[in-house]
Each structure stands twice: as C-alpha cells, then as structure tokens.
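Inputs:
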Amino acid sequence: MIPSPKTFPAILSNLAKATEKQQREDTAQLFRQLSEITRTRTESAAVNESAAGTRTRAGTRIENKVENDAKNEAPGATGEGSAEASLTAVRERITQDLENQYPQIQKLAESANDRGAQRALKWAQKVTTLQKSLIDRYLLKGEELLADSSLFVCEACGFIFLGKTAPEICPVCKAPAKRFSKVS
Amino acid sequence: MYASRNIDLCTKDCLCLFVCPTGATDTETGQIDKNLCLDGCRLCVDACPSHAIYLVMSNYADPKHKDETLAGALMGLLESKADQEAVARSAAAENPGAQKLARALQKSMRILAEDCAREGGFMLPQSAASQALLAELAQTEDQQIQELAVKLLEK
C-alpha cells in the first residue's frame, strides 16, 4: 500500500539517513534530493488546492481526522501567516494529536505487541507535550523568552531544548549532547 | 561486509593497524579502505580496545512484520506531523525569536515524522515498502521525481 504524498518527504529523508548509516553517500544524496522535491511539490499542491477552494484531502485511518481536515483550512496552513498565528495553528494541531491520535495509536501498538512502535509513540508524546509548553511560554512572554537563550533540537528524538548550551543527556531519549544541533 | 571506524571513539591505539592482514585500516584519510577490507574478517573489530570499529553489512535481514492497521495509523500520524512542519515553515519573518522557534518546530516535526516512517515499514531502503514506493514514484509524470526514483531503484 502506498501512503499519501504528504508522507513522502519524511519517508525519503529517513531513507537518506538509513543509507548514510550504511555508508552509501551517493545513494543518500539521491534520497535527500528526492525528499526535497516531493516536499516542494506537496507544498505547491497545497497552495493550489487552497486557492481553488477544493477540499479533496486524503483521509487517514483515524476517524477523528475529519475535524483536523477542517483545521487544515485555518490560517497558516498555506502561504505566509504571522509567526504568532502559525505558532498558534501548530499548537492547536498538536493538542489534537495529544488528545486523540497518540492514545489511540498507542492502544493499537499495545494490542499488536509492537514494542518499537510503543517506544516511538512514547517519545513522540513527550516531545509533543514539551513542544506545546514551549509554544505556550513563547505566547506568554514573547521575544523575551529567547533573548539570552538558544534552541537545540535532539537529532534522535526531536526534543527541543531552550538554554545556553545543549543538555549533557537528552531527557527524553538519553542521547548525548553531541546529538543536539543548535537552531540558527 | 566491511569494517568502518568511528573517529569519535578512536583513541589512536593503532591495534587495528597491527592486526589487519591487508593494510586496509592504514590509510591517508583515517578511514578504512573498504575495497581492501576482507569480507567479515573482523580482526580489527575484535582488537580495538575502544570499540571504535564496527562492521557494515552488505545485506540486511527482512524487517519484522508490521501490523497493517498500526502501520496505517502511524502513516496518519506522519501526515499530521508533515502538516505541522508545513505550518511552522509558513511563519513570517517578523520576530527573530518566533522565527527561531518555528525553525526548531519544523526540525522537530520532521524527526517525529521520520520515526513514524521507520516504525511504519520504511526503516530501510531495502524493505519491500520502500521499494514499492520507489516503483510508484518511478511511474509519476513529474520528470525530476521519475528520474531520481529510477536511479534509486537501480542502486
């Protein structure tokens, strides 16, 4: 079964990482290029779609996505919105994931006895909760929040850390400091 | 199968140079020459006191079977993360802090999405799901996508 085109960029950038680890740099390079092209195609398709006012989105297996689809038309879905509006839009979506998606998929992973998926969901749930709290702190304090601090992202699990230097160990996945990259 | 050196861990004790029968471990780049490396010999792997050398496989076992409902749900979650990445990318460049936060969120969303892909059957390019995706992309009308997918299928 082929998943929806929206999933292609991340699937392909993940395959690029897998190939890097197999030390096949030329193949990794092709996967990275293909990932970027599919991303720009998906994004321009989204812009055209919202311009034409059509609403033909591929549904997903989780039923409560109908509600999400309505939100896809919210400001910030396509084109450029104010930074604050975009952050608020991201916040709304991740709140839905935390309330609906994660608990439901976690149950599926448990009943399928899939330990890898349970691990991925547990990390993702923590990372998402912390993303939400970071957005809330920004919406409350504004630019002051980031005045003397930097943001670091854990390359292993996606955890975002706010501080002067990267933490010694990632609190979510236990990766060491060198796995963090500073956001410029 | 060939040996590879993790420079981060290498303590320059050079025991790999002592044991290697072909000189593959002793090169001008500091990396092991995989063309000289003997398939599966692993003398250097066992000799290294810092565990800085490991073997890169040429073949990988088939991944464990994924429950289809679960894999589908993980793809749905991936889609949600892709949407969130796109929303974060659309943030305007008015305030430097907000802009930075939006960039961090984009990166973070992508990492979460990639983890869904891994657990949803796309762990390795060698997996059946990955090969089927490439075959599909090789059929698209978009010429750039088609060409890259064909090249990757040949790899």
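Chain B has six helices and two strands. Flag for discussion at group meeting.
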